[in-house]
Amino acid sequence: MQIGRIEEIMTGLGFSSYESRAYAALVGENPLTGYELSGKSGIPRSKIYECIERLKRKGLVLPVEGNPVKYVPVPPDEFARRLSNEFESSIQTLESLLAEDIQTPAIDYIFNISGYEEIIGKASEMIRDANTYLDLSIWDNEVEYLMDDVLLAKDSGVQIRVIVFGNSLQNFKEIYRHRPLSENEFEGRWITVLKDNSEVLTGECSDTYGSIAAWTRNRSLVHTSMKYIEHEILRIQESSKEKNAE
């Protein structure tokens, strides 16, 4: 058991270091007396019963009748479920309270996102949260990571238009394939995700120079991105007609 990592996460969630170590030790072996738990967790005997009482008040440790009394932990899945419910409720309450105190008009800031995994994570989140429309401009490399989310959005009825640099996404109705690029035409792979015509993620995924993107709900930039997608689609359509006419 990775006690150090468990302790790090639990303290980040508001538990004390002793509470974290005691709970983790009980999960690893139970039932235990206070004396035994002190030895297993490394918590001083002078502090162990105070720690147990705090965990009992939080509903995470239960006493087992006996002499001496032993203790068992609430199962980890139940612990996680309780935490999830409590945090979700707290976040919703916090959001409502903060919304009541807004004194300035909303400003659509532009947020920079650095790192490939972070960009893909934000793109995935936007695709999953789409309700009506999705416009995408992506390369095969990124389709590999976003395919499942795109398919789920498609199955849920979201209207999707995709400009793809490559040969993936063969079964989409509105798929527009960018012309083949010459070698070194681009230093990186550009990505644009436009969700519900209300927010956009756009940037560059580069294996050489690093990956950076911007995310915003700024109406001007959302509109500009939408027009970019539409312009590229028209250009691809016109190019296709010219080839068919030859």
Brief digest:
With 246 residues, this protein is an alpha+beta fold.
The largest beta-sheet arranges its strands as 4-10-9-8-5-6-7
- What structural class do you assign from the helix and strand content? alpha+beta
User: Percentage of helical residues?
Assistant: 40-55%
User: Number of helix segments?
Assistant: 8
Largest sheet: 7 strands, mixed
Q: The CATH topology of the largest domain, please?
A: Endonuclease, Chain A
Strand-helix topology:
Blueprint: H1 3-12, H2 17-28, E1 32-33, H3 34-41, H4 45-57, E2 61-64, E3 70-73, H5 76-100, E4 110-114, H6 116-129, E5 133-139, H7 140-155, E6 159-165, E7 175-177, E8 189-195, E9 199-205, E10 212-216, H8 219-245
Parallel strand pairs: 5-6, 6-7
Antiparallel strand pairs: 1-3, 2-3, 4-10, 5-8, 8-9, 9-10
Helix pairs in contact: 1-2, 2-3, 2-4, 3-4, 6-7
